[in-house]
Amino acid sequence: MKKLAAGNWKMNGSLEVLAELAKLEIRHKESTVNVLICPPAIYIQTALSLFSSISIGAQDCHMYQSGAYTGNISAEMLADLGVNYVLVGHSERRIDHTETDSMVLQKALAAQTAGIKPIICIGETLNQRESGQTLNVIEKQMNGSLHKDLTSYPFVIAYEPVWAIGTGHVPSSQQIAEVHNFCRNYLEHNFHEIAANTPLLYGGSVKGSNAKKIFAIPNVDGALVGAASLKVDDFSSIIEALEKS
Ligand code: PGA
Question: What distance in angstroms lies between residue 223's CA and the mean position of ligand 1's atoms?
Answer without folding.
Answer: 9
